[in-house]
Specification:
Mean pLDDT: 93
Radius of gyration: 17 Å
Order of helices and strands: HHHHHHHHH
Oligomer: single chain
Structural class: mainly alpha
């Protein structure tokens, strides 16, 4: 059956990708609804408790990103705190890096550029979206050379990556203006 062959998980993953594109292209309400649909699919699937917990943690991460896109720093801070509490409990390196990413993005949205730089510097350097956010933190802090260097890393990032496709055009445009 579809369920036994992992179809539900595959569709949930596809929905998560669609929601990511929607979020990064400014379709925040549609992204939020699609993230919710994705986690509901995992919740209803035949899956282990660990898989469902990971999906719920991933949803908290996405809720924080959605809140930031809505300029709702309070909701982003709350979702980040919940996500990080669970991530720190699990001690999964990928999730711990995402925790730094969210904390950095919340700090940037709050105008705390030093904390944003420190947190984003501990997030994944293999995620071009994180590098783009780090460049924005440097730029906001008035560190133009560091911002330019980091944007160049995004532009020259050498990997097949959906996040790269979403941030590279913005990085190119910003570099031209710097």
């Amino acid at each position: 059956s579809f369920e036994q062959n992992g179809g539900t998980h595959s569709v949930a993953g596809d929905l998560n990708l669609v929601a990511t594109v929607l979020l990064d292209t400014g379709e925040v309400a549609a992204a939020s609804a699609t993230f919710e649909e994705s986690v509901r699919m995992v919740e209803s699937a035949v899956a282990t408790r660990d898989v469902k917990e990971a999906a719920r943690r991933g949803f908290l991460y996405q809720q924080a990103r959605v809140a930031l896109a809505r300029d709702d720093t309070k909701a982003a801070t709350a979702a980040t705190a919940s996500y990080c509490l669970q991530a720190e409990d699990k001690q999964i390196p990928f999730e711990l890096r995402r925790c730094h990413e969210l904390r950095g993005m919340v700090a940037l949205a709050s105008g705390d550029h030093a904390s944003a730089i420190a947190q984003l510097g501990q997030a994944s350097s293999q995620d071009p979206r994180v590098l783009f956010e780090l460049a924005m933190a440097y730029r906001a802090a008035g560190k133009t050379d560091a911002a330019r260097d980091t944007l160049s890393r995004v532009v020259n990032f050498n990997a097949l990556s959906l996040p790269l496709a979403l941030v590279r055009p913005r990085a190119i445009a910003l570099l031209k203006d710097m």
